[in-house]
Amino acid sequence: MDVLQLDISGRPQAWISTKEAAVLYASDAVAWTLGEPCHVLRGGYQRLTGLQSLISLHPIIAVRGAIPTRAWRQAPALSNFKLFARDRYVCAYCGHRVHMELLTREHIQPVSRRGVDSWMNCITACRACNGRKGNRTPEEANMALLYLPYVPSLHEDMILRGRRILADQMEFLLASVPKSSRLYES
To answer: Where in the numbering of this chain does the HNH nuclease domain appear (predicted)?
Structure first.
């Protein structure tokens, strides 16, 4: 289980391990939490009282401290794993849902023709369609796109990272995801 770490204003920062979260709790760096405690860490026993130390971890924690505003202006890092998840494992040309191993990152404007490797120029394609399109644009290959690319929001990116997300975490993240997002498609 991972804990969703937020900045104090509620913007997602990272997925952290329970050990990393425990350090933040122990150093009094947690400003506030969301969700019911989902994990209890047990420590040693106090010599005077005989009581065992406990830390109850919540699925979502906000950490004190400022994050530079420029950190939120950048687009999420592009990876095949997140691209395929964004596009729901569906080929943008033929519309077939394909297993991840049979998908490719397709550049709408080919890189060899000054296309860039970015969220707005990349879509998911099956190997057959990618080979058929080749080094052409979709118009030149007479292959219409079934959906358009987009840059995932910060909240979508946290979902696309492929963690086992707890219900409280998913509810929090989806609350800030536009209803038009492909993440709502089945």
So the answer is: 78-131
CATH of span 80-141: 1.10.30.50
All CATH 1.10.30.50 domain ranges of the chain, comma separated, are: 80-141
The 3-state DSSP class for residue 120 equals: helix
Tokens in use for 122? 């990349």
